[in-house]
Amino acid sequence: MSHINPDPEPERSTGLEPGGGVPPGETPPAESSMPEAGPQETHNPAKGWSRGPLLVILLVAVLVAAFFLAYALVLIL
Fold this sequence. Notes:
Layout: H1 51-76
Transmembrane segments: 54-76
Region (Disordered): 1-48
Keywords: Membrane, Transmembrane, Transmembrane helix
């Protein structure tokens, strides 16, 4: 792979002053994306939680709530 320089060339960029400065009211040149920014992704997992882990979390939460409710009832009686 050949490396592509993402920085603009000052000679070819419009709106730049000598030395690379941008005059007031002028928008700087936009960034270009880097084609070699990261690994190529070949697998996209499903979005969101699957049912299994979500059900386990809910079951644990219900059991903890039931334990504290039973503990409170034992203390009251």
